[in-house]
Amino acid sequence: MKQKLPSEEIQTELSWEEAVARYLEDHPDYFQRYPETLSRILLSHETGGKAVSLIERQVQVLREQSQTLQRQLRELVNNARENDVLSGRLHRFATYTGARIEEIRVAKGRVFCRLGDRRHELEFEAVRSGRPGLLRAPSAGSMTPLVRESLTGRVRVRFKERTSGRILFEGTGRHAGFETGGETGWLADSR
Fold first, then answer.
1. 167 vs 84, 116, 121, 163, CA distance in Å?
2. Can you give the C-alpha Rg of the chain in angstroms?
3. More confident residue, 66 or 54
């Protein structure tokens, strides 16, 4: 059973619908200026049965793809913001906090280093894999010493809070550049 609405409510509803219709008639370029509005409107296409028109299906697929891409873009932007904050922490740690080398181990094809300050600790380990190539390196204005360089190295990095042990960043890079040359024993003595 339908309930009759007072004529005033019907008039208000019709006036609102009429206002929207008139606005769109007066501004035919509205959907060109705001295409995202059109992409959110669902318009059904009457086919008279269970069949769906090809255009309607294409629009649905494109709308789903657009929503997926928008979600991925939001995730990328959020990751970029988080990385920016982390980059700032790492920069301050490495330049302003008085961080010192606490441990360093150098072996053939491997370097491990841990440095820290009172709040944070940074560890990295670089491992060369594959055969390195010999390249000339600059020294005192000439390219005389040879260095061993590989682009098939692996670098593992971990940045954490010292007191809680909470890991702020951890990752491994593959296909990293790894270069060694000359006497590296002084690194362990420089602490």
1. 17, 14, 10, 11
2. 32
3. 66
CB contact at 8 A, 105 and 112: yes
Query: What b-and-e string marks burial along 58-97, b requiring 16 or more CB atoms within 10 Å of the CB?
Result: eeeeeeeeeeeeeeeeeeeeeeeeeeeeeeeebeebeeee
For residues 132 and 149, is the Cβ–Cβ distance under 8 A?
yes
Please name the amino acid found at residue 47: T
β-bridge partners, 147 = 135
DSSP 106-168: EETTEEEEEEE-SSEEEEEEEE--SPPEEEE--BTTB--SEEEEEEEEEEEEEEEETTT--EE
What's the rounded Cα separation, in Å, for the pair 47 and 74? Answer: 37
The whole-model pTM stands at 0.45
d(CA 21, CA 36): 19
In angstroms, the CA 145 to CA 171 distance is: 33
Local structure of residue 177 (DSSP, 8 states): E
pLDDT in tens, 109-119: 788 889 898 88
23 vs 41: CA distance, rounded Å: 17
